[in-house]
């Protein structure tokens, strides 16, 4: 339990070094990872059940070759595709916003540098170091947050296409 408290203090010290914008990036990252976990749960736990239900309903049909049956098949595949893509736009938006929050932190930190320069003069490098730190750390944090979401967003988009195609292929006429 001691190590957990120490890590918490390290996180708080890092956030203090980067300024208050890091709290916003941390919140954004938390929401992003909640979305990633929700989509993972859907793809690996919920969707296989939905896919099996759709396929069993299709296999139970007597008519799978008429125009009407083909429209039902298209509708079922389309509904599954919508479920597979659900939430990906929001996740992509979170990934795109993350670096912008980092840039906002850069601007915030640079404003502190300019305030220090106005008060202490331009030659006090030690006084400006804190502002420069608050300018660079949020940029790095925003980029790391975005990178952590890019992989999963790309993976989920690919998986949605593949699973839609697989579902359509498994719904054969008989």
TrEMBL record:
User: Per UniProt, which keywords does this protein have?
Assistant: Cell membrane, Membrane, Protein transport, Transmembrane, Transmembrane helix, Transport
Q: Which GO terms describe its biological process?
A: protein import
Q: Residue limits of the MotA/TolQ/ExbB proton channel domain?
A: 56-168
Report how it sits in the membrane: Multi-pass membrane protein
GO CC annotations, alphabetized = plasma membrane
Q: Which Pfam family, any one, appears in the UniProt record?
A: MotA_ExbB
Question: Would the keyword Transport turn up in this protein's UniProt record?
Answer: yes
Subcellular location per UniProt equals:
Cell membrane; Membrane
Which family, according to UniProt? Belongs to the exbB/tolQ family.
Q: What is this protein called?
A: Outer membrane transport energization protein ExbB
